[in-house]
Amino acid sequence: MGDVRGGCCPPMDLFRSEPMQLVQLIIPMESAHLTVSYLGDLGLLQFKDLNSEKSPFQRTYAAQIKKCGEMARKLRFFKEQMLKAGFSSSTKFVAGADIDVDDLEVKLGDFEAELIEMNANGEKLQRSYNELAEYKLVWQKAGEFFASAQHSATAQQREMESCQMGEESIETPLLQEQETSIDLSKQVKLGFVTGLVPREISMAFERILFRATRGNVFLKQVPVEEPITDPVSGEKMEKNVFVVFYSGERARNKILKICEAFGANRYPFAEDLGKQALMISEVSGRISELKTTIDAGLLHRDNLLRTIGDQFEQWNLKVKKEKSIYHTLNMLSLDVTKKCLVAEGWSPVFATKQIQEALQRAAFDSNSQVGAIFQVLHTRDSPPTYFRTNKFTSAFQEIVDAYGVAKYQEANPGVYTIITFPFLFAVMFGDWGHGICLLLVTLYFIVREKKLSSQKLGDITEMTFGGRYVIMMMSLFSIFTGLVYNEFFSVPFELFGRSAYACRDLSCRDATTVGLIKVRDTYPFGVDPAWHGSRSELPFLNSLKMKMSILLGVAQMNLGIILSYSNATFFGNGLNIWFQFIPQMIFLNSLFGYLSLLIIVKWCTGSQADLYHIMIYMFLSPTDELGENQLFPGQKTVQLVLLLLALVSVPWMLLPKPFLLKKQHENRHQGQSYTPIQSTDETLHSEANHDSHGHGHEEFEFSEVFVHQLIHTIEFVLGAVSNTASYLRLWALSLAHAELSVVFYEKVLLLAWGFNNIIILLVGIIVFIFATVGVLLVMETLSAFLHALRLHWVEFQNKFYEGDGYKFYPFSFALLDDQDD
Predict the structure, then answer these.
(1) How does this protein sit in the membrane (predicted)?
(2) How many CB atoms within 10 Å of residue 142?
(3) Would 279 be classed as within a structural domain?
């Protein structure tokens, strides 16, 4: 399976990773940029960094990368400006010649300078406009106050004059003439300050003014109806227009400092009513002119941003490509003649022809006199792991890769995970009503996958969308197991025929199975609906699901051990076949394979034998007679043989392998001979996986190898018991899911139905729907998913899967968007 298959693009094979090769490219300087660009379009070559000892600033193309970084900064600035203005970049590409990078740099610089200047001018104009708007409000609100004060003063003056002209009475004040005859030159002249203060701090502003001047001020505040834009911060806020009257220069200085501390904007004001009207008119005219100028500037800025937006995606992609090309060129080493670049990298074997064609095309398009040289290097380094997946298989492969990336060309559990993972999930989630609900959600994602794949989704939605095909398989298998369990939201249906049982009398539902008599042929598929609701339902289903869990677990663990044989055969490791695969198969099947056989025999014969008793006394008293627990003739002899084989297989796994490894090591280094065994030991001697298949090890630590083999043996022996017990989670979660469904159906839906009240029924239906969706379709789905994940990672994959490889990350322009996100 490791050979090179014919054709450019062989059929996808997930069982083994693609055969890889280390290649060397010698590229002339004049065609280097175009060559790397074409290889990025191809996306099938992972470059090695040949300048790892150099810092980023010491590399050949550091200046070009800095230039690309500066262009990327300008493009990010343009994107921010477009988002603020409510524009989106156009996704359509304008047909035409490829833009030159130097021309693009000049164009982006011009656009940035123009946009910065327009923004600065716009901010100045907007600030002036906001200041004039506030100024106009001050003239209007303060003018109203002065006008009303002047009106009331005039009215009071007229009233006093009318009183003087009238007849004097005994109530007339004696000092009135003295008061009115005071010299006007001795009156105190009051000054005032006007402006606006934020409404939320207006009360604090008033208190501080009162305390600072010891009450020697008069403050008048008028709220502005609509929120206005502050000239300094540019934010909309509610404000009050204030007028502060004071006496003396010291009071004025205090008021000005308080205004500055509170962020109150002060504006000049005149008492003359005529001047007030003139100023309001003048300010209104200036506001109108500024508004026209601002609108014209915004229109011009929008046109500029629209022009940028039409080509933004093209420019952005071009800059990303250029930056990635120069990053890659910096990984190449410069030849001593400084006329060519030397590149090394990993590529799949099937991509050889495509890479050579890309090199030839680059040399021709760049008018290079010398073409690039392509040659395959022989190396002892471990190649990267590359699986070619599609949108269906990629999610299952990600489940495996989350545990660890497969070692180069070892058996990939992802192939079996496509079936076993959703099936084990469905064993725990078996209900065909819930399965249909999951399937409908998944079909929505699948039908709209083209539209949704181009949108930004939330974290949970994006995770669900990425695993849509996994959930689809999970839901299909859940429908299948739900039909086997005969459960539709915990309600049984006679879908495949009538029940084989009937009641002997009316009280049989409260009796055991004795109350049911068989009147027809056995129910053709799944659990007979008559079991549901009877007293013996739980014991019967518990027995069925527990035994089924053991059968499934033993089968999957056997599959894992068989895959270890496949790995040992593929890598030519005979030691692992004779001293790992064979004793492990014997040990597991002598105990739990035999238990599985007993389960099947008991089902087929209808025997009442106690399997617990058989397995316990197989160890405690293997020579005792079985009596009524005997399932077949010669069972005692078979058990003795199997027990003996299980005991022999433990030292078989432990002892021979370390001594044989030591002998092989001595033969290799004493005779300087080559042995066909590619790796000394896949599990214990992990260094061999990253070296030349076992070569180059100067020392062999026998004690270390023996301890590792001892740990491996103990782990397998104990794991055979614990892993089999771990599969009982299939039974436990299936039981929990079924019982929760029964509780929600009987204690919510049927209970609400029994009240014969439409309101209670509606409430019951709503509670039932939310409980079903929230608990059974979300929490139970997540729980079963995690348990299925654990069974695959721990119980299945630890039998054969090392997962110590590293992924193949080719240089590809198609991955630029993912890296940017």
Answers:
(1) Multi-pass membrane protein
(2) 23
(3) no
| One domain, residues 601 and 625 | yes
Q: How big is the chain, counted in residues?
A: 821
Cα 131 to Cα 229: distance, rounded to the nearest angstrom: 9
- Number of domains present in the structure of the chain: 2
Residues 455 and 371 grouped into a single domain: no
* Token representation of residue 554: 């033993």
In a domain, residue 651? The reply is yes
| Residues 406 and 519 both lie in one domain | yes
357 and 437 together in one domain: no
DSSP state of 778: I
Using the structure block, give the residue that is written with the tokens 């500055």: 260
Burial of 340 (0-12, 13-18, 19+ CB in 10 A): buried
Would you say 777 and 434 are in contact if contact means Cβ atoms under 8 Å apart?
yes
Domain boundary, last residue among 384, 402, 422:
384
Together in a domain, 376 and 423:
no
Helix axes 537-570, 594-605, angle to 10 degrees: 140
CA distance 623 to 641: 11
Q: Residue 146: which of 213, 238, 241, 227 has the closest Cα?
A: 241
**Any domain includes 448:** yes
Same-domain check for residues 711 and 752: yes
pLDDT of 356-384, one tens digit each?
999 999 999 998 888 899 999 999 999 99
In this model, does residue 312 exceed pLDDT 50?
yes
Looking up tokens 């062989």, which residue turns up? Answer: 10
Residues 653 and 513 in one domain: yes
Residue 695 backbone dihedrals phi, psi, to 5 degrees: -90, 160
- Spatial neighbors of 674 by CB under 8 A, at least 6 apart, are 668
Ordered DSSP codes for 175-218: THHHHHTS-GGGSPPPEEEEEEEEGGGHHHHHHHHHHHTTT-EE
Based on the fold, state whether residues 378 and 401 are members of the same structural domain: no
Residue 293, in any domain of the structure: no
The CATH number of whichever domain residue 26 belongs to comes to 3.30.70.120
CB 312, CB 89: distance < 8 Å: yes
**CA distance linking residue 434 with residue 476, whole number of Å:** 10
Per DSSP, what are the bridge partners of residue 223?
A: 240
Residue range of the domain that includes 377: 15-50+335-384
Q: Please, what is the Cα angle at 615 between 614 and 619, to 5 degrees?
A: 110
Q: Give yes or no for a contact between 588 and 720, defined as CB atoms under 8 angstroms apart.
A: yes
Q: Is the pTM of this model over 0.85?
A: no
Could you report the per-residue pLDDT of 756-772, keeping only the tens digit for each? 889 999 999 999 999 99
